[in-house]
Amino acid sequence: MSDQVSVMTGNEAAANAARLARVQVIAAYPITPQSPVVEQLAAWVESGELPAEFVAVESEHSAMTVCIGASTVGARTFTATSSNGLAYMTEQVWWAPGARLPIVMCVVNRAMAAPWNVLNDQQDSMSVRDAGWVQLFCRDNQEILDTTVQAYRIAERLHVPVMVCYDGFLLSHTMMPVAVPAPEQIDAFLPPFTEPFTVVDPGDPHNIGPVVMAEPRADETGATRGGYMEIRALHHRALLDALAVIPETDAEYASVVGRSWGGLTWEHLLDDAEVVLVAAGSLGTQLTVTAEQLRAEGVKAGVLGIRAYRPFPVEALRAKLAGRRLALVFDKALSYGYEGPICSDLRGAMLGADGAPAVFGAVCGLGGRDVSPEDLAEAARRALTDLDAGARTRETDWINLHLEG
Amino acid sequence: MTTKILDLPVVSYVLPGNRSCAGCGIGIALRQITAALEGRMVMTVPASCLTVLGGMFPIASVNVPWVNVAFPSTAAAASGIAAGLRATGRAEEMTVLAMAGDGGTGDIGIQALSGAAERNEDFIYLCYDNEAYMNTGTQRSGLTPAGARTTTTWSGKRENPKDLPRIMEAHGVPYVASTSAAFPADVYDKVAKARGITGLRYIHMNTPCPSGWGFDPKDTVRLGKLAVDTGLVVLYEVENGVFRLTGRSASLAKSGRPRVPVSEYLATQTRFRGMKPDVIEAVQAWVDERWARYVARDAGACD
Q1: Nearest by CB to B57, which of A55, A72, A225?
Q2: Reported pTM
Q3: Is B2 a domain residue?
Q4: Which of A15, A41, A132, B199 is disulfide-compatible with A97, CB 3.0–4.6 A?
């Protein structure tokens, strides 16, 4: 059974992945640029092609809540959102991982308002990086399909939700050839979800998600059960376990479907690179062109792409970056008053590591601001000039910023 | 169907020693609610007094499946649970019951509830209305009555409460009922009837609260009944758009005997202490006007 190749948008790739994963409950609320994902799924549910419950809720808060309710009783669930929609559901974005529910959500990355802007950056998903989801970033439409299917396997093994992040418009509305695996292949890779973390059974009643005290407490048999911190520690451990489960899942997927995406990170021309360009999402694809351009100029440049942003792959990044001169991180988001989030995280990961490179940060593409491979190459040249002048740290470089006037 | 109080099931899914306050109306009613569903149910509960009643991990005090959810999300969680049960072929195994307080229903939860009602989701939503945010320390809600002192209306609330059952009626759901925790058999009958109906069933339950209203815990039932005798609380149901008074409200309307003046009811609770005569008069006029409308609707008038 070979793949069927179709030309499709990133949103269609995500919808195809949800269909192949045989999701049972879909809940969503419209927001640009996410809407086409659930429009497609609604059509398949209506036509009977996808036997699932489609709940057209009245808000993103309720979209995540419906997934929480359905996942609690053991259904495989899907939703998708962007930007302000993700912000609106934030309370539930925390609830889902706290309740250890294996929900999969596509976040079609879009700038946060105010002011209104429907175009791409990655501020939305970065703003909930600490909520306890696995966050995976995709660089093209094929990866969106494959990663969304993989996300269910990761989520259901670890009982943590997975956010599949991909760039609004740049991927969501851009057509590319995408190989769609046969349903039998995905069925072999992803068995039905039969082990819910919770039990909802009148014959064996449980109070799910009650108040948990600070200190451990005895149950009705006298056995000590963990308090809030123990529950949080187990959740953290599950996220750390994802550092192994994400690559394992990618390898299992490759053995069935024949495509691998590198697990935690991916790379291009990295072997002998002295200057490493780092980014998440489709920006990484652009950086491959930049690296080739820089190599033509005699600069040994390569790309290290972040696929898993949470958990943050500290050991993998240390190993990949040891002995390099410079890691230049391109963020499409900002922690206001500090710097780009990937840059901060990478600098922290490099601290004290053998052969750690200098880590410089650049911010680009906010609110869809155009950025070309040449713009990125120019930023790399500026960084190298600073490095050659002896800089080990540097203020964040804003690419294509026009404040004059 | 009218069940006599002595005929109510003895089985209790609510265990003794739970954490509800002495005299809590929820404690009385929850026994009947769970009994009417014969325990074949899953509850979804937001942050509320009910969360406290349910117990703290790892101890639970209610013997039915119970899913705690975020404050605004009760009706959406019930929608998701119902969808999940359908998707996994278990919808026939249990009734989905969403149960939240007046703030969790009429204020922060009204968006999710309105959405679920418009979609006519298949669950029972029961609002226990104790007329303020009692679990957080008696702050006013949109359902706090005029004149009531709360910790955010120190000199008495100025506005009348919103009429949540009528808001739900306007959604065209198949069943809307108003009941009171002081009438366990009425609660039982309405939940039992709702159980046999498909779609969104909304039950509004007046629930006296000794600590928040300021009365002796032994008087919960007496005050709940008194509220009905004044016409402040009216027992009724609207089945597929057809309105009828039930129980004590029906007999009150039928007898034609005068209702108890609201001033008598207000005098029983410290929250109404110091209410000015003109405010009491305004509340009485508001109750009279509403009562006349309920009686007219019961007699078949369109409203």
Answers
A1: A225
A2: 0.97
A3: no
A4: A132
